[in-house]
Amino acid sequence: MQKIFVLAAILWQTTILACDICSGFYEIIPNDRKSSIGFNYTTLFRNGYPIVHTKHSGHLNLVGSEVKEIFDTYELRGRYSFTDRIFGEVAIPIRNIYQGVNGNRRFDYWGMGDIQLQVSARPLSKLSPNGWNNRLDLFGGMDVPSGNWLDSNANILIDPVYQMGSGSFDFWGGLSYMVRYRFIGLSLQGMYRHNTRNALDYKFGDMATADAALFGLISAGDVKFMPRAGVFFEWGRKSEVRGLLDEFSGVSILSMQWGLSVSYKQFQVNMFLRNTMLQKTNGPEARQHYVAQVGLVYAFKKREKSEGMTN
User: What does the DSSP assignment read for the chain?
Assistant: First the structure.
């Protein structure tokens, strides 16, 4: 799925809040050459027992306690088709972060996340309705540090991991390739993200993602069903605090992912679930159990000529 679709979920040292857009703008959609507007809801759930103390406040003095964390993102997304091969995207997120300890709420706060901008180009696009199809997209984007950065909430010092945004301009680039024969296809995507330092001299670690998925295309009149299943890998470098490595940061996660897109004329509903299989962290973070997303897209600009993968 070309929109890796994910998200949120992002993942610097916690696999969360830093890369929603780079894993969110590519889908197997019949309207992928049209301008569109959409809304996404993404949730990431973590639960477990921290085993070591850290110098950050997120799990300080919580060793041996059951920690539950929910990261929710409500996102308005827009896409503009400059040509059949060049596109611009924007995402405006609102986030809610909740942490509970032993069944009691520790903090629960809302804020605006970083606005994300992306440009993509399609140098390769070949369509054959009853034969082989392939498509290559190249994309690059940036975060604008519009997210709230809180020193504290309810008298609790907020760890950088639990901030609404990074406080810095961050950049990413990658590619997405799809090949399809009739109603069965394969999608591959890779992305690298470079984070810069914020005003507090904190730098979230750079990160990379890769995913591979099989997808299908089933038509029933004007309705198209696009199921997909595959694997997703994410890796994050250690963060830096005033030029020193944060030894408790850094992450590697391997996940299974499933998704379904259903389109009807200019409307599309997208759903996806990613379950963690393997997770390695250098800190005490609770285990990430799953990331889920549901979204609605409306394509409002019809083009005369379209050679998209799923027409």
Answer: -TT----S---SSSS-TT-TTTTTS----TTTTS-EEEEEEEEEEEEE---S--SSSTTTT-TTS-EEEEEEEEEEEEEEESSSSEEEEEEEEEEEEEEEETTEEEEEEEEE--EEEEEEEEEEEE--TTSEEEEEEEEEEEEE--S---SEETTEEPPGGG-SS-SS-EEEEEEEEEEEETTEEEEEEEEEEE----TTSEEPPPEEEEEEEEEE-EEETTEEEEEEEEEEEEEEPPPEETTEE-TT--EEEEEEEEEEEEEETTEEEEEEEEEEEEEEESS-PPEEEEEEEEEEEEE----S----TT-
Task: Give the mean pLDDT of the chain.
Answer: 79
Please count the other Cβ atoms lying within 10 Å of the Cβ belonging to residue 188. Answer: 16
Q: According to the 3-state scheme, what is the secondary structure of 212-247?
A: EEEEECEEECCEEEEEEEEEEEEEECCCEECCEECC
Q: What is the distance in angstroms between the CA of the first residue and the CA of the last residue of the chain?
A: 16
Region of 103 please: left (phi>0), alpha (psi -120 to 50) or beta: left
Structural domains of the chain in order of their starting residue, each with its CATH number: 36-299 (2.40.160.40)
The region of weakest confidence among 37-41, 93-97, 163-167 is: 163-167
Return phi, psi of residue 301, to 5°.
-125, 110
Q: State the pLDDT at residue 148.
A: 72
Beta bridge partners of 143: 116, 170
Q: Contact 53/60 with Cβ under 8 angstroms?
A: yes
Taking the C-alpha atoms of 88, 115, 19 and 12 in order, what is their torsion angle to the nearest 10 degrees?
A: 150
Model confidence over 233-272: pLDDT tens digits? 999 888 888 888 877 778 899 999 999 999 998 899 999 9
Comparing CA positions, the residue from 22, 284, 21 lying closest to residue 159 is 284
